Amino acid sequence: MGKLILSHVAKRFGKVEAVKDLSLTVENGELLTVVGPSGCGKTTLLRMIAGFILPDGGSISLNGRVLVDPMSRAFPLMPEERDVGMVFQSYAVWPHMNVSENVGYPLKVRKMGKAETKEKVSATLKTVHLDGYENRMAHELSGGQQQRVALARALIMKPDLLLLDEPLSNLDAALREEMRSEIKEIQRELGISIINVTHDQTEAMTMSDKVAVMDQGSLIQFDTPYNLYEDPENSFVAKFIGSANIIPAARSSEAIDQDGMIRVTIEGDYTLKVPHKEGGKEGLLAVRSHHIQPHEGSALRGTITGKLYHGNQTEYQVQLKGGTMLRVSVPGSYTGNPGESMGMEITKAVWLDN
Ligand code: ATP
């Protein structure tokens, strides 16, 4: 329904480059999640797509229709002309209207007849599981229900693209989980494309077809959740997605074995094999905490500085000789304590140049 193409989009506010030369494509029916530290440009990006902010450069098109292109003479399309719906973090449900009036408002503005409006409101309320709530006022709704009203109001115009700016962040954990699966269901049912902004890692990993990781206005990696986790582009992505351990490393030789692996060394004398990548002699290894396990006879040793019990696992903080701090997640019954030495084996790692 909605193929979105962003090409070299840029936006500056005074000295701040909020979005820098950003290009990406969201395919029909895909759910893209945008993540990144606070202030990296996520909301600015969404607002440019919605039409609330004009980019300084680049172009945005949806289904072959140019929404905005500052280089061309064409006027940018107004937000209401874009076939784009948006739901914000604040519920933005009008308190003086009941649920039906809130959801039907966009149709009223377009002067749609009463009978047709009623039919569409009723169908949309079913989609967000709010049928039966037509006459409730906003203050009689829970936070989750109010957010469903905002979602229904965005969906009633049958947009090709739905933009979600942290709509679940004010909800409690159980409700967030429920809304996540409902949004996925809406995506499948309506075949709609969705861009979701979130600070929630689980949400990004579990809901998305693709994830865009941004930092300081730039797109750092645009990939599937699997590839982001398994093959991060650099140490920023490795730390931001799943907080990997980052360990300075050196290649021990240029030889690539038959499985496409190369040998690298960390801490001077511990060697391991990692998938080959082009790059320099010195680099970094990204290692997930559960890919390091206690191993008494290992050449890789460190001192335990902390221990956190999580129930299904225990997380140890371990300091290597060179000063690097590691997080090691141990399932079951390893009995090390702070102050003691721990030998470790790394079972999987990814080479990074920076
Ligand atoms: P958060 O996760 O905190 O919501 P974000 O990634 O959505 O942040 P943006 O709101 O897009 O970030 O802001 C990107 C940068 O642009 C920030 O440095 C912000 O201060 C700046 N910025 C955003 N809007 C404006 C504005 N209207 N005027 C001036 N600077 C702005």
Shape field: elongated
User: Which cofactor or ligand species appear?
Assistant: adenosine-5'-triphosphate
In order across it, which strands form the biggest sheet? 6-7-8-3-9-10
Class per helix and strand makeup: alpha+beta
Question: Could you give a short account of the major beta sheet?
Answer: 6 strands, mixed
> CA-to-CA gap between the ends?
38 Å
Query: Runs with pLDDT <50, length 5+?
Result: none
What percent strand?
25-35%
Share in helix: 10-25%
Radius of gyration: 25 Å
Please tally the β strands and state the result.
20
Q: Number of helical segments?
A: 8
Query: How confident is the prediction overall: mean pLDDT?
Result: 92
Order of helices and strands: EEEHEEEHHHEHEHEEHHEEEEEEEEEE
Tell me what you see in this structure.
The protein is an alpha+beta fold and 354 residues long. 24% of the residues lie in helices and 34% in strands. The protein has 8 helices and 20 strands. The protein has helices at 42-50, 99-109, 114-127, 143-155, 173-190, 201-207, 225-230, 235-240; strands at residues 4-13, 16-26, 31-35, 57-62, 65-68, 84-87, 161-165, 193-197, 210-215, 218-223, 245-251, 261-266, 270-275, 282-287, 292-294, 300-309, 314-320, 325-330, 341-346, 350-352. The strands form 4 sheets. Strands 6-7-8-3-9-10 form a 6-stranded mixed β-sheet, with helices on both faces. Strands 13-12-11-14-20 form a 5-stranded antiparallel β-sheet. A 5-stranded antiparallel β-sheet has the order 15-19-16-17-18, with no helix packed on it. Strand 7, helix 5 (173-190) and strand 8 form a beta-alpha-beta unit. Helix 2 (99-109) crosses helix 3 (114-127), helix 2 runs parallel beside helix 4 and helix 3 crosses helix 4 (143-155). The model has no long low-confidence stretch (mean pLDDT 92). The structure holds adenosine-5'-triphosphate.
